[in-house]
Amino acid sequence: MLKPIKEGIADMVIGSRYNSRSLHEIPVVRGMGLSLINFLNKSLMKIDVKDTQSGFRAYNRIMLGIISDYDCSGYGAETEQLAQADSYGLNIMEVPVTIRYKGLGTTSKKNPFAHGTHIVSTILKVMIEKRPLLFFGLGGVLIILSSLLPLTNLLSIFNETRYFSIPLAMIVLGLTFMGSMLILISFVLYALKRIRVSLNNKQI
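Predicted structure:
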């Protein structure tokens, strides 16, 4: 675990159960949840780490300084650390470790559903911070596009009967305003993200 840190080839080293026989001893429910969380981490955050939820880790001074400067609690800390390392452009390595599950009874102090929900919510929070244009911007565009249906109905009714439907007009205006605000928020968050990344690079 410490060798890559001492040699200066890694900023964070993770003890991976996916590189050893320990994976076969993980309880079925825990293993399924771990696989799902690993999939979400790798597909949404584009992090090339097999065992994203392993808490057996080693850090160099740079990484320790980074993770000590933000508030994270619970089982989402592993995900937030990976996101921080990725945003700072630090090197993450995995080494095989052996973990014994058999004969230990329960392997977690927390309810599996609550455990998984907390981690997934952390992943989504990190993703919104990393890709605001995708989440807020795309959401805003979709909401604006959804206003086209009531707008079409409004124009159709007006052309046929010369009746201007105020409820439909309010729906169109509401959806357009909501979508526009989300797009504006996405640009603001994107600009803040760029500023933060620039400051992070200067600190390193």
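Summary: The mean pLDDT is 80.
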